[in-house]
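Archive entry: two folds, one per protein. Generate the first.
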Amino acid sequence: MHILIIEDDKKTAEFIAGAFRQSGYITTLCTDGEEGAAAALHGEYDAAVIDIMLPRKDGLSIIRDLRAAGRQLPVIVLSARGTVDARIKGLEVGADDYLAKPFSVAELLARTQALLRRAARMDETLVLRVEDLEMDLVSHKVTRGGERIDLQPLEYQLLEYLMRNKGRVVSKNTILERVWDYDFDPHTNVVEARVCRLREKIDRASRRKLITTVRGFGYVLGA
């Protein structure tokens, strides 16, 4: 699942993003309000964590714009203002939850998962399927042919990205940018190594191999 984080304090943003990635999520970071608003309005995300005090455009304005555009993206507000009035204002403009700073990352993750479960009851597409391979995007459970597959967080993120792009060849460069948040380094073999491990877990016990290397282009999951 893909989480948008809009937070102008880079240390805090990286800390939050790291916690989400360790839990198997893909993250995108924006450090100012206008950049964050554009990402929230035009990107495809499963939830957003938005700070209120942002340069160029504040978080409440971003949420107002989202709701005015009909976007139902689940949003958790982060704010140093923890008063009841501030919480009410955040919820009134369309936030789904409100967390005052300083906050517990474990609580942020738990609240995000609760929002995603709520969304799952309204949207059954939160289970990805490619043939007999299934991924539950809320519980993070992955199965093939009904058998549970245990994945490391980066393996989970990589598989989710491949499943969301099933049947489409994705390049090493794109995977580095979308899954690892790295700039492209033509000499790194981190993608090849991780795909190899993932292939062993996904395809080892099945006659039908789902992950294919397209030499010179990248990787594809499914036909």
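Generate the second and append.
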Amino acid sequence: MAIHIGVGGWTYAPWRNNFYPGDLRQKDELSYATAHLTGLEINGTYYRLQKPDSFAKWAAAAPDGFRYAVKASRYATNRKNLAEAGEAVAKFCGQGLVELGDRLGPILWQLAPTKRFDPDEIAAFLDLLPARQDGCTLRHALEVRHDSFACDAFVDLMRDRGHAIVVADHPDYPQIADLSADFVYARVMRAEAQQPAGYTDAALSEWAQRAHSWADGHAPQGLAYQSACEPARSSGRDVFLFFIGAAKERNPAAAMALIEAL
């Protein structure tokens, strides 16, 4: 199975003369990023709808085998009652995602840190997420950031729907590494500015081992699980791992170092 490693977004001023060469034109940054990474998390979609032409342009900038994850609209996820997000979900999925073609990876639905687990509400929200859009299969990952989600009931619900629980490595948010889909979505958020690659060699080696384990269909040790592990998946799992936040200026170096380690 494929392992895709990248960062969140591709436009960030401190990446110039750091990740991007100083003489690189800004309009060429995306092509540079897709040539050096194997995945990117599109974050602009969280704030506003995009034009189909933009998705088509992003697809054209990426080589074969590259995948974009797409962060879902905040108008769908940051609301009092997620069961009422149907219109926002439909608008988001219908904005032109399918123009990414085979470069389309999972959709990331990130809930607010204050959103507590309510089984009926979350089940209703998951039922709003379409399996297909304009003939294209969609895969969904849910990032939860409240401790109340760390329970068997949530894991069972996600496994029943076949959606991925985001494996978050963050000092404040719960880590729920239980496998619930045919892919894994990890967001690693502990980069340190004093480390040239954001992380020590040992830490990157550990993430490389985890990525290989996921791709082979296994649940790696050293992560926080809430319930009994799923049996090993003989066909393996696709892996999407993104270095996000923290010392953001180091994240591209971390991604490239992990790609090299793999």
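Annotation attached to the second fold: The longest strand covers residues 104-110. The CA atoms of residues 210 and 220 lie 6 Å apart.
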